[in-house]
Amino acid sequence: MKNKVLVVEDEQSIITLLQYNLQQAGYEVITAMDGEEGLKKALAEKPQIIVLDLMLPKIDGIEVCKQLRLNKVDIPILMLTAKDDEFDKVLGLELGADDYMTKPFSPREVVARVKAILRRTSKNIVKGQDDTSAPQITIGPLRILPENFEAYFNEEALDLTPKEFELLAYLAKNKGRVLTRDQLLSAVWNYDFAGDTRIVDVHISHLREKIEKESKKPNIIKTVRGLGYKLEEPKIYE
Hints:
Distance between the termini: 49 Å
CATH architecture of the largest domain: 3-Layer(aba) Sandwich
Helix content: 40-55%
Order of helices and strands: EHEHEHEHEHEEEEHEHHEE
Number of strands: 12
Largest sheet: 5 strands, parallel
CATH class of the largest domain: Alpha Beta
Structural class: alpha/beta
Shape: elongated
Strand order of the largest sheet: 2-1-3-4-5
Number of helices: 8
């Protein structure tokens, strides 16, 4: 069965370009030209991934992403953003998008990103195939159940996006080890090419807001200047 890709984009030329290249790569492609139609098709068609433009008629891409995540729809989202729109990139990632690409882009790179995201998603769906698989990981007040995609802090369930969970689980599995941004990008996002490491920084920041007493003075996910990040057992916690 072919993986289904939903492309939500209001420029017909871009839709035609993406549709052709994705179909050539073996995907079934459905399309929508505004956010309202895109949201309806995402819920009705249940695609394996959404390629979502941010600047859309009726409902913009940020709102589409927000509504999907509020409704606990975990379909991976690849955002398409304007060249210099840094705020929208960061906001989209914080709302649960998996990745973004800046226009103009190569249709080949879009296909490569889609493949990378779907490889990671399909690997995690098959129970026991995820790198982070373990009955339970406990670090101080943090308890992670990789096979159930559940995490708890002081026994309260954490509300994490799929990508936040994967990042947290990978850091926990490598407790005490310094991981570079490129290593995290490769392990969690499955990139086979150079990606934008700011994606890692945004997700780390979001995780800290959920598990640190003071996100600006992290006690669990530490920054190692010039290198990357490491997760370690906190010396003091409540």
